Amino acid sequence: MESLLTAKELAQLEQPFRDIFSDGERGRPDNVTGFGAFELAKHGALVWNKWRTLFPVQKWEKLHFLFPANYDEFNFSKFNFPRNISFEHCRFYNKVFFNEAVFAGDVTFTETVFSEDVDFSNAVFQGAANFKGTIWVKSKCGTFKETKFLAIADFSATSWHAYKQKLEPGAYDNSNHALYYDKRGMNTEVLPHLDFTKATFLGRAIFDGRELPPLILEETTFDKAPEFINSKLHHRTLLKNTKFPKEFGYAVNEYRVLKNAFAELKNTRQELRFFRREMQEEMHNANGSLRRWLQAYQFFSDFGFSVCRPLMGLIALFVISLSISLLLAYRNEIAIAASPSLKGSYWESVDWGMTFKYISFSFGNALPFFSGGKFDSHLIYELFGTGAVPEVVKIIALGQQCLSLVFWFLIGLAIRNKFKLK
Predict the structure, then answer these.
(1) Which of 17, 177, 239, 315 is 20 to 30 A distant from 373 in Cα terms?
(2) What is the pTM of this model?
(3) Is there a domain that residue 270 lies in?
């Protein structure tokens, strides 16, 4: 095919660009074809990135890589890819390296076949990363350590294959999926795993519609709640120090799906974790009295996960009750301390016997399951004098008991959740 460049234009190009674009099927430096992209990629990152610097503006809307069927060495490490490129339907038969690559725009891997490991560690996806329908064959393939997804990342409808003997590259089954077999003739059924350790998703992360392999989400950051609609998580999915969005109010369904998924896996710790986030989402979406109740539930117990908050509430309630008891005693002129000038220091002047009775009365009300004689009228007159109204004191004591019962329930609930009791 005749070159798309004139002889003068071709002569002005540096090597190796002159040799690369001497073939018309490879296009022009400012409008490369899929074959031209392949030839540039063969020369490595230095040549590729120099081409990107010399010809940053391309005339095509979308570049689709085209590889010869017999080519099996792919190393795209540190490549600076242009906008809107596609590896759609490409088949990689050996390990592929995209580590430290930069994708300046949208990139498509739809129905791309990775038969061996693929390394995207430290890569940056500045546009949408479309892995929808990608076919992953070998176990342990898919490394996205410290990868940054600045826009949507779609891993939905992905296929995972592990079969029993090896066929020639390009063989397909009836469902048009590539078949890959190991040489032992044994069905190993070893699923691959995707490693997203320290990866960052600033856009939506979609893992919909598949039975997923083990996902490693250690120290992974999600700026938006990930989607696992109609997916089944593997029991070896690892979430460790995973960071989810601090904002709430838009992802109640996403967290509910994750809660139910981990409930099916009997992973109580993660189930409760996503239950709390689901409750936070519902609180932000609720209105009126329901929102106020949920806010109170969060404030006093962190949705049933804090032991400290209800315990502090119980102590505060005890102090308030004791203060009310002392105030009633003072108003009814029940002396618990004489004049310091008559008996020396203040601490020496306190009637500790009487004071401990008030402490015991308030503490007894904080233990509603021990009734005793807390509502005995003779005790009330002894503590607060004959001028006290027993019904008023009983109402105050009953109020403390009811609130204490709520705090004790929240403490028990938090202990149950912390120790993963069902």
Answers:
(1) 315
(2) 0.74
(3) no
CA 371 vs CA 70, 83, 127: distances in Å: 86, 75, 67
* Integer Cα distance of 122 and 76 in angstroms: 12
Q: Range of 395's domain?
A: 308-418
Q: What is the distance between the terminal CA atoms of the chain, rounded to a whole angstrom? A: 72
Residue 84 sits at the vertex; the CA angle it makes with 208 and 171, to the nearest 5 degrees, is 60
Beta-bridge mates of residue 376: none
Residue 333 and residue 239 share a domain: no
Distance CA 375, CA 398 (A): 9
Q: Give domain status of residue 209, yes or no.
A: yes
Between CA 288 and CA 282 the distance in angstroms is 13
Residue 59, amino acid = K
Mean pLDDT by 10 residues, the chain (422 residues): 70 85 85 88 91 84 76 84 87 87 92 86 94 77 90 87 41 36 36 84 90 89 93 89 89 93 90 91 90 91 90 91 78 55 50 71 77 63 69 81 90 84 55
Q: Would you give the DSSP letter of residue 24?
A: G
